[in-house]
Each structure stands twice: as structure tokens, then as C-alpha cells.
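Hello,

I think I submitted the flavin-adenine dinucleotide job twice by accident. Can you confirm which output corresponds to this input? Input:
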Amino acid sequence: MSIKPLIEKVAIIGAGPGGLAVAIALRKLGYDVQVYEKAKDFRPVGGGLGLLPNGLNFLAAIEPGIVETIKNAGCEVSASVVKNTQGETIRTNPVNRYQDQYNQPLITIWWWNLQQILASKLPSDSIHLNHRCIGFTQDDDLVTIDFEGGKKVSTDLLIGADGINSAIRKTLIRDGEPRYLGSMSWRTVIKYHQELLNASELAFVKGNQDFMFLLNLGNDYIYWGYRQSSSDYLPSQDAAAVKLRILEQVANWGESLQALVEATPAERIFESPICDRLPLKFWSQGRVTLLGDAAHPMSPSVGQGANSTFEDAYELALCCSQASNIQEALSDYEQRRIPRTKIMQERSALGERRYFTSAHEADAQNMEEHLQMSREQFQDWVFNYKP
Ligand SMILES: Cc1cc2nc3c(=O)[nH]c(=O)nc-3n(C[C@H](O)[C@H](O)[C@H](O)COP(=O)(O)OP(=O)(O)OC[C@H]3O[C@@H](n4cnc5c(N)ncnc54)[C@H](O)[C@@H]3O)c2cc1C
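Support: Only one job matched these inputs. Its output is below.
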């Protein structure tokens, strides 16, 4: 008689950085892994990401050699520059110390390029595009996933890596809509030859109740992300209105910054509210669990969204390979991940508020210890975490 192994088949919803990374990690351990993605094809979408030492260390543990590939496709950052709205440099902070201090650099890369690199490490017939998951049901033996159009797929373990508006989380937790954090975001990636920053720099342009991030993504691609404090989320009517709105908001900024917005095709600017969700006490039920933004969405202020997702991916695969049953695997995974990501979520929400309020106002609240850590202490805690 053959005894069925603990987990044979794994289905992952979402081919973002988290879903693809956990797929690679689980395949290496011998699982039959299938990834289901709602997009009809892989298109050049998404913003610019900063990959930091902790995220890169976990990616390297999942796929040795991948950091070199990412470096070649993106930009290894040597300095972070603070500018005023006229585009003049106020301060330069070296970040090449990351390599000495934490054993990895800071790399900026386009979300789409990262997705392509990760997808290239999987057999193409294990990624199923045009599969929008709408829910699931489960019993003691199996999970059955429902897709738009009526298709159903059965599996031993289901991982929801389908982002902040996760359909898996909706079925599993039912905790409603994401929480709006009081700022709006407009972002894009364009090919643009500019003289605002050197090839290995990233910049933070400090406005009054607004700011802009500029990231070099390699090959003359640049990411700009503009954020503004807004007590309500007020969406624009259409793409043309989005661009006009930003141009009005930066009308007093320097010419080079205005020219960057001007040169961007209106339909390429993505407008969204900055949101998170409150930390959860559990992420799993039966044979189903969550990962990445589906489990712990956070504001981008500490740059840990994608980086923490790679920690999840490595640790979930490890827990699956070490446990004697699914419940044990998912419970170990939660114990390893929930306390750490809770701190990141809370610190990120505070960071978002601090962009627009004085430190004094933000600090006046009764804060837990991890929220009082200095920036350096927090960085040490985040970046020194290793596989
Ligand atoms: C302005 C901004 C800047 C950021 N900057 C950084 C940064 O510098 N560093 C950093 O680490 N993070 C950053 N982040 C966060 C980062 O983008 C996310 O944390 C990261 O992409 C999460 O990866 P994920 O795979 O969990 O989810 P996602 O990247 O959201 O991927 C989810 C995938 O699931 C698919 N999907 C969704 N629903 C379904 C469904 N129902 N069925 C099938 N497929 C589905 C989506 O199409 C997508 O491909 C930033 C975020 C924002 C908003």
C-alpha cells in the first residue's frame, strides 16, 4: 500500500513576487506546484521596488545566483539623495555601506522585471495566466479552488499570494476593505533620459504635504512616485485628469521635475490610495494559508512589502518540509512570521503618518517599544534577519 505524502500538490494564487518566490522554493523541495494568475499575459506593469539586504538574503537562499541576475536587470544604489522641490540636492546619504554591514546591496528594480526573472525560474507550463480565483471550499482531504468562468482545481495546499485585495483572504478571514492611511499615490515607470540624479542614486524630493521618489531602474528606465497627504481618497475621473492634477500640484516645482511628469503618457500613471490592513492573529485555516501582501499588507514607507514577502516564501517552504502534518506546518509558519510582520506593518503605518506630521506630533502618542526604535536600530533589526 502506498501512503500519500503529507503534501503533494500545492496551488498558489498570484504570480507576483511572493507567489513566484514561494513556487520556486517549494518546487526545489519536490512539491508539484502550480501558479494561477488573473492577468491575461505578463505585461510591463507595476512600479519600482527597492530590494534590501533581508529580502535579497532570502531570495539568494531560495535561488542561488538570483541576486546577480537582479543586479544586472536593475540598478545597484550607491547613494540616496534628498532634494528640494527645485531639484537641488540638500543631502546625500551613502548606502553602499549596506554591502559591508549587511552583506547585500540595495537594488532598485521594476516590479515587472523582477516578475520576469522569478517566472523564468519555473517551467512555463506551471504558470496559468488568465485564471482569476473567486474563492475556495475545503474538507479534511482537499481544497477546491473556484475560478471565474467555472473552472475548478483541487489541491492539497492552497497559498493565497494574491495581494492586498486577496480573494483568498476574503474567503478565509472576511475582514472587509483595506484601511486608507491618509495619502494618495501616483506612480509610473518610463524610459526617460534625465539629469536629475546619477545612474546609481535614488532621490527623495521633499515637498510640503507631498513628496516624490525617483528610482533609477537601469537601462534609462526611471520610476517616479508622487504622494500627497489627503484626508479622503479622491479618485480622478480619467487618465488625462490624473496627469493634469499632478501637473497642477507640482506647478511651483523646478523645471526638470515638471518635465518628468510632462513627458509621462497620461495612461501610464497609476493612481491609488495608500492602504494597509491591521495585523491578523492567524493567516491559515485547514489547508489554506496567506503570504505577502495578502497576509500583511503595509504602507511602502519602510520599503518592506516585497522584501518581507521573500522571507515568508522561504520560511513557508521550510515549514512544509519539516512538519509532520499540514496543521503543524502552517502553525509553525504563522509563529515564525506573524510577530515579525506585525512590527513591520505597525512601523510602516507610523512611517506613513510621519511623512506628513511633525515627529513631535507622531511621537506624542503612547508607543510600543518597536515604534520607538531609532531608524538605525530598526534597520539593524530588519536587515540582520537571515535565512
Ligand atoms: C507606491 C508603492 C511603493 C512600493 N515600494 C516598495 C519597495 O520599495 N520595497 C518593497 O519591498 N515593497 C514595496 N512596495 C510593496 C510591494 O509592491 C508589494 O509588497 C509586493 O509587490 C507584494 O508582493 P505580493 O506577491 O505579495 O503581491 P502583489 O505584488 O500584489 O502580487 C499579487 C499578484 O496576484 C495577482 N492576483 C490578484 N488577485 C488575483 C486573483 N483573484 N486571482 C489570481 N491572481 C490574482 C495579481 O495580478 C498579482 O500578479 C511598494 C508598494 C507601493 C504601493
